[in-house]
Specification:
Blueprint lengths: L1 H11 L3 H10 L3 H19 L4 H6 L5 E2 L1 E4 L4 H5 L10 E2 L8 H10 L9 E6 L5 E7 L19 E5 L9 H12 L3 E5 L21 H13 L5 E6 L1 H13 L5 E7 L5 H8 L3 H20 L1 H7 L2 H5 L4 H13 L4 H8 L12 E6 L12 H6 L3 E6 L8 E2 L5 E2 H14 L17 H7 L4 E3 L5 E3 L13 H33 L5 H32 L6 H11 L1 H26 L1
Parallel strand pairs: 6-7, 6-8, 8-9, 9-10, 10-11
Antiparallel strand pairs: 1-3, 2-11, 4-5, 5-7, 12-13, 14-15
Helix pairs in contact: 11-14, 20-21, 20-22
Keywords: Membrane, Transmembrane, Transmembrane helix
Protein name: AB hydrolase-1 domain-containing protein
GO molecular function, one term: monoacylglycerol lipase activity
């Protein structure tokens, strides 16, 4: 009995942990594998932000496209309201039901159409080289194999994203879509991309609009009959919107589209370093930027901190060691604030369609300028619940990008309407690159020819005088020549009148010579002020009285001296007449 009791006591003496292990050992290994798979699936579903179950519960109808616009916007009521794609739903490819999967698939494959561009190398004002890659709608070419100068088909300028060029899948999707519908498309590659070397001391960045401005003006002057459209993607979208805001009414662009713009670079910088998955994107993009820098090492070794570039593990670090040093920004945040397109939305005067996915893993919804877009009658903002970054794949085979169809539809409805933007017939010397340069320096100079130039110690990247401005200046010089000819005619007339007057006494002749001498000095002294008024008045007619007041105040000492000389001569003549009468 005691032995039995002892044995029972030994069995009952096992710890709870031992009993739990014995019970766990009796469970088949397959059950553990299934449980582990379930846990991993739940974690992966949340980590990858999958929405397959949500699409399933909605019957694979997709998410509704939400539009933000001004209630009185003619662009919405007459253009966007006729676009079926903007009033429907977007359903992602089921096996890519995640913003990360879509973005990854776009970078790896993207299934772009197969075609070959025709390349044109364009040299900008500072010696930099830009590759313009053409895809024509027809075989209408001129002698250089590009496009006939009398072409009247719409011309679409596409601006790629960060470290992307014309070979990117999403760029080829957009170019092919527009070309097959009758448009001539040209991809304006960033400096140093598309297999082209950097040939100047300037690099492109998120706010560098000078290259786009010069390319658009060049294309507009070469193909004046072709309505010009512009599509920007990612960083390219930020550049396009910033350019449109800088130019206002003075751009030849008739309509534009912005796809997945980061909008506010400061907010985007905070977002991309916030979560673990975003940090992966940050490191991947930094790796791509370092690859771009490696291609142009001889230039960056001289202009930037090459050792810091090699050690960069994020976009911010790369911008600190490269972008800020080359473009001469004081800090990274200064660069981000000055180059954010959200600050320029209010001045956009061109019909603009903006597309953003709310689950974009790179460009957060927090940066979207909702109120600014709603306040501008020229802007329609379209947001979708899903889509990733520049992806928006559709269909079971993921052969189409939703945003490509939406943008194409919007632009063609715009072309068929009367709401295309028309450039104002006026010079824009003061409204182009000089304006962006003035923003970087608090001091300006008014030169003798009436031009306003910034006083800055910045390098060649900030001292901008686009080539298209040379023609404007030549025209202004022609105006000055006409003015000088008119002045000479008046002077000749005055000389004739003087010669017709009766002869004067030697004292009066000497006094007149002294007066003419001082008058000539006076005209020479105020000539720059007069030229400045004539030049600036052409651009700012409303400010003519203000300019006249400024000219009067600045020349008052000379006017006072002239008045003193005149009154002194008159007083001396009066005394001389009284003495003769005696």
């Amino acid at each position: 009995m005691e032995a039995v009791a002892g044995g029972g006591g030994g069995g009952g003496g096992e710890s709870a942990g031992e009993l739990l292990l014995r019970a766990a050992a009796m469970v088949p290994a397959e059950h553990y594998a299934l449980a582990a798979l379930a846990v991993v699936s739940v974690l992966a579903y949340g980590f990858l932000e999958l929405h397959f179950l949500g699409d399933l519960l909605r019957g694979f109808r997709g998410g509704r496209v939400e539009l933000t616009f001004h209630p009185a916007s003619e662009i919405y009521h007459r253009v966007a309201s006729k676009c079926r794609s903007l009033h429907g739903r977007y359903l992602a490819t089921p096996w890519l039901a995640s913003p990360h999967l879509q973005t990854l698939f776009l970078g790896i494959s993207g299934r772009p159409p197969s075609f070959t561009y025709k390349r044109q190398l364009y040299t900008v004002h500072d010696g930099g080289t830009i590759a313009l890659d053409w895809l024509l709608a027809t075989d209408s070419k001129d002698s250089d194999g590009i496009l006939s100068e009398d072409a009247s088909a719409p011309l679409v300028v596409i601006v790629p994203g960060l470290t992307s060029d014309s070979a990117a899948a999403y760029v080829k999707h957009m170019a092919y879509s527009m070309a097959t519908k009758g448009c001539n498309t040209v991809v304006s590659n960033h400096r140093g991309l598309g297999g082209v070397s950097i040939t100047s001391d300037c690099l492109y960045n998120a706010g560098w609009t000078e290259d786009l401005r010069e390319v658009i003006n060049y294309l507009h002057h070469k193909y004046p009959k072709a309505p010009m459209l512009c599509v920007g993607t990612s960083i390219g979208a930020n550049i396009v919107v910033k350019y449109l805001g800088e130019e206002g009414e003075n751009t030849p662009v008739a309509g534009a589209a912005s796809i997945c713009s980061p909008w506010d670079l400061v907010v985007g910088d905070r977002f991309i370093s916030r979560k673990l998955v975003q940090r992966f994107y940050d490191k991947a993009l930094a790796f791509g930027l370092k690859g771009y820098a490696k291609l142009h090492e001889p230039v960056l070794v001289r202009l930037a901190n090459w050792e810091g570039i090699k050690k960069s593990r994020s976009i911010r670090e790369f911008d600190h060691h490269a972008t800020c040093m080359v473009a001469k920004y004081e800090t990274v945040d200064t660069y981000y604030r000055r180059c954010s397109s959200a600050s320029y939305v209010g001045n956009v005067s061109v019909p603009l369609l903006c597309v953003n996915a709310l689950d974009d893993p790179l460009c957060t919804r927090e940066a979207i300028p909702w109120d600014e877009c709603r306040a501008n009658k020229n802007i329609v903002l379209a947001t979708t619940p899903n889509g990733g970054h520049l992806a928006f794949f559709q269909g079971l085979t993921a052969g189409r990008l939703w945003w490509v169809g939406a943008v194409s539809e919007f632009l063609f409805v715009l072309l068929d309407s009367k709401y295309m933007h028309q450039q104002k017939a006026q010079d824009h010397i003061l409204h182009s690159s000089l304006e962006s340069s003035i923003d970087k320096s608090p001091y300006v100079n008014v030169m003798e020819d009436g031009m306003i130039a910034p006083v800055t110690d910045d390098g060649p990247c900030d001292d901008i005088t686009p080539s298209h401005q040379v023609n404007d200046i030549k025209q202004d010089n022609g105006d000055f020549t006409q003015q000088n000819e008119h002045t000479r005619e008046v002077d000749d007339k005055n000389i004739t009148e003087v010669n017709a007057m009766p002869s004067q006494s030697p004292e009066q002749s000497a006094g007149q010579q002294v007066e003419e001498h001082y008058v000539g000095k006076f005209h020479e002294a105020i000539a720059p002020v007069k030229r400045s008024i004539n030049q600036l008045t052409r651009y700012q007619g409303k400010s003519v009285w203000l300019l006249a007041y400024i000219a009067f105040v600045t020349s008052w000492p000379l006017l006072g001296s002239l008045a003193f000389i005149a009154f002194r001569k008159k007083f001396r003549n009066n005394l001389l007449a009284k003495w003769l009468r005696r």
